[in-house]
Give the backbone structure.
Amino acid sequence: MQDFIDPLCVSALNTPAAEASGAVFLRVMKDALFGPVGGSDLLLPRVDLGRLFPEAAVAWLQARGAVLHLGQRITHLSAHIPPATTSDIKWRINHDAEFDAVIWAAYQSNLHLPLDSEYKDAIDFDIYKAIHHWQTRNHALPTRAIATVYTWCEGHTQALLPRAMTALASNAQQPAQFVFDRAYLGGPAGLLAWVVSASEGDSATLERQVIAQAQSQLGLAVRALKTVVEKRATFACVPGLQRPSMHIAPHLWAAGDHISGPYPATLEGAIRNGWAAGGCLGR
Ligand SMILES: Cc1cc2nc3c(=O)[nH]c(=O)nc-3n(C[C@H](O)[C@H](O)[C@H](O)COP(=O)(O)OP(=O)(O)OC[C@H]3O[C@@H](n4cnc5c(N)ncnc54)[C@H](O)[C@@H]3O)c2cc1C
């Protein structure tokens, strides 16, 4: 449990094994170990995630003539329904452009469907209720943090560790489960990234603990450079979780890692939900 299941579970589900959904964990294990060839390969990107996924997607879409409006925050979403029907419903974004359908793919912790103030009175009450129900479920999801402590080791011209990713023995006092040597991943020699899934401490405590962990487990004298704590990095993947559905209201769909599906909050889960929501558009 301590050396294999616990670290695997907390890194895949961002939830400690003692709290985690056994059904989801076993599904991840089954698909990784008994799924298609390559299902259990560990993929470590050498480029940043922006280049890996979103920029590649932008290039793909633009090559097919899609019109993209990047860097624009959606603050308002409102429905316009002709009387007595929902078939011609249009969704208006930021009081401006109207669309036949919308996929809302914003991460759940930011997600306040920003409805117009008059919305409640102006449109079909069933749609209002459906959105309200969906939002309530969305906001009720418990969340967990992930912290990354970046450390520096002076005077090195080569990688510090024998491989890009090293598993560590972790406990409450030695919180990092894995350390990444960035020298293998396009970073400078001497830079290490210590990942603490399901993190609970504040930055100063985590830095102190990781510096001590580096010394005691790897014999490295490091100093902390920067710590990033994503307080609501993912939902807590606990048993019996009621995740929000993909369908919100007529012609309004949701995508993202937190939407109801077989996987925990991972890129795989988000991508699967994105594909599925895209497939709903024509309906
Ligand atoms: C530190 C950390 C490490 C992780 N490590 C891994 C890992 O190793 N493997 C793995 O599979 N997963 C990992 N994850 C989880 C993974 O990042 C998420 O599961 C995935 O990014 C979720 O994708 P998403 O599309 O649902 O949401 P996001 O990636 O959060 O995308 C949502 C987008 O919507 C935008 N947005 C939000 N509100 C608005 C608005 N009002 N208007 C316009 N845009 C808006 C946001 O800016 C964001 O770009 C990690 C997460 C964290 C925080």
